[in-house]
Specification:
Elements: H1 6-14, H2 20-38, E1 41-44, H3 46-61, E2 72-76, H4 103-110, E3 114-119, H5 153-160, E4 166-170, H6 177-183, E5 186-189, E6 210-214, H7 217-227, E7 257-261, H8 271-286, E8 290-294, H9 302-317, H10 336-347, H11 350-363, H12 369-389, E9 395-399, H13 415-420, H14 426-431, E10 435-443, E11 446-453, H15 459-471
This protein binds glutamine.
Glutamine binds next to loops.
Domain Amidase: 22-463
GO molecular function, one term: ATP binding
Family: Belongs to the amidase family. GatA subfamily.
């Protein structure tokens, strides 16, 4: 039962092969049995899950249908869930029970999805390895000595290990696509503004975007359908109609123009990954796509720009955690300054503190022009490169990451080494573009992802290309041994 995709579950529920309650119980038992090896959950919501599953079964018995009605999922632990701990992977919010549901959570619940729990993540979504979580590192089910990627490492490890078919995640600089690549999943970061950020604890507000992590493009289409849409509570949400993503999955790739940026294949890319990317290009050519070399000349500036902009926004967003209104509060503060200092010093981990310091520095008087303003100018250049490229091609293809998943602890002493691994993903966030990562093969038994980028609001195009590829390849069906 645990091998089923969301699409298969929807068919099985519609055909009354099993009930949502039965499936939910099987998966909860599987999580209890196997998750101690992975640490992919921060909280399990068993009672809520059974209650939601029963309600979904009752709705189906009353004649309702829908791809998500009775489908078990989990939420990354930065989506607020009413009455349930929403920790953001931080000691700061270990005691925080959200007083309301995030829009994404409410929409999925209304569609009938069943919440099994809240998944582990890098603290405040800062990281690429899920090692900065206060709840401990998450292990990669493909090799328990390796990281699952981050920051949505819990969602990724759980779905890859078949603990559940799909989960929500967020992507500020790659946190959906990179863990998807590291664990052999399909993950989609939508266009900025496509999915509401209301109730999603902010890291860098101009970059953050929620999206689906699943095993197939077909399942990402189903989950995205339940997440996307205009939300008056989010001032950056865009009032555009949401297309039927599953209906966009049947299109031929004949004549599809795929741009491959020459900058993607320079030094730093593992040659074994380069070879797998070439294989995926050939596969898409067989399906009728036309390949064109393109250039994204400002790509080399993206990492420094991102690692100014994201910490700058984080330093501002995280100022609300001051020990006064919610979250961790130190014992016996001597005065207000002592309360701030000790609450924040005790509540935030090392990586979060580093980013707050970098961000506050970059925004401070005298340095603003040199760092923040400069980074924003680079951001515009990165966007312009994409706009020029999309005049010539329909999608852009390349590796999701320069290397496969590294060993736990390998980059802990050198944060910049981890930042450099984000080179292929962060440009889409700087430009606000949608991006998808899908399985493309293995290196030393570890999964490799290929990334597709498309113009604004072309999520359907990305999902269709990935779906056509998955109809003709079987990488995405491989299961990690032991799970
Ligand atoms: N690795 C990047 C960072 O640490 C991206 C994280 C994310 O997308 N949330 O900022």
């Amino acid at each position: 039962m645990h091998q089923m995709t969301l699409a298969e579950i929807a068919r099985g529920l519609a055909d009354k092969k099993f009930s949502s309650e039965e499936l939910t119980k099987v998966l909860l038992a599987r999580i209890t049995q196997l998750d101690p090896q992975l640490n992919s959950f921060i909280s399990l919501t068993e009672d809520l899950a059974i209650e939601q599953a029963k309600a979904a079964d009752a709705r189906r018995a009353n004649g309702e249908s829908g791809a998500l009605l009775g489908a078990p999922i989990a939420h990354k632990d930065l989506f607020c869930t009413q009455g349930i701990r929403t920790s953001c992977g931080s000691k700061m919010l270990d005691n925080f029970k959200a007083p309301y549901d995030a829009t994404v959570v409410a929409k999925l619940a209304a569609a009938g999805a069943v919440t099994l729990g809240k998944t582990n993540m890098d603290e405040f979504a800062m990281g690429s390895a899920n090692e900065s979580s206060w709840y401990g590192a998450v292990k990669n089910p493909w090799n328990l000595e390796h990281v699952p990627g981050g920051s949505s490492g819990g969602s990724a490890a759980a779905v890859a290990a078949r603990l559940l078919p799909a989960a929500t995640a967020t992507d500020t600089g790659g946190s959906i696509r990179q863990p998807a690549a590291f664990t052999n999943l399909t993950g989609l970061k939508p266009t900025y503004g496509r999915v509401s950020r209301w109730g999603m604890i902010a890291y860098a507000s101009s970059l953050d975007q929620g999206g689906p992590l699943a095993r197939t493009a077909e399942d990402c289409a189903i989950l995205l359908q339940g997440m996307a849409g205009f939300d008056p509570n989010d001032s950056t949400s865009i009032d555009e109609p949401v297309p039927d993503y599953s209906a966009s999955l049947g299109e031929s790739l004949q004549g599809l123009r795929i741009g491959v940026p020459k900058e993607y294949f320079s030094a730093g890319l593992d040659p074994r990954i380069a070879e797998l990317i070439q294989n995926s290009i050939q596969q898409l050519q067989k399906l009728g796509a036309v390949i064109k070399e393109i250039s994204l000349p400002n790509m080399q500036h993206a990492i420094p720009a991102y690692y100014v902009i994201a910490p700058a926004e984080a330093s501002s967003n995280l100022s609300r955690f001051d020990g006064v209104r919610f979250g961790h509060r130190c014992e016996n503060p001597e005065n207000l300054i002592d309360l701030y200092k000790r609450s924040r010093g005790e509540g935030f981990g090392a990586e979060v503190q580093r980013r707050i310091m970098v961000g506050a520095y970059a925004l401070s008087a005298g340095y603003y022009d040199a760092y923040y303003l400069k980074a924003q100018k680079i951001r515009r250049l990165v966007k312009n490169d994409f706009m020029a490229a999309f005049n010539e091609v329909d999608i852009i293809l390349g590796p999701t990451t320069p290397n496969p998943a590294w060993k736990l602890g390998a980059k802990n002493s050198d944060p910049v080494a981890a930042y450099l691994e984000d080179v292929y993903t962060i440009t889409a966030n700087l430009a606000g573009l949608p991006g998808l990562s899908m399985p493309a093969g293995f290196v030393d038994g570890l999964p490799v992802g290929v990334q597709l980028l498309a113009p604004y609001f072309q999520e359907g195009r990305l999902l269709n290309v990935a779906h056509q590829y998955q109809l003709n390849t079987d990488w995405h069906t491989r299961t990690p041994t032991g799970f």
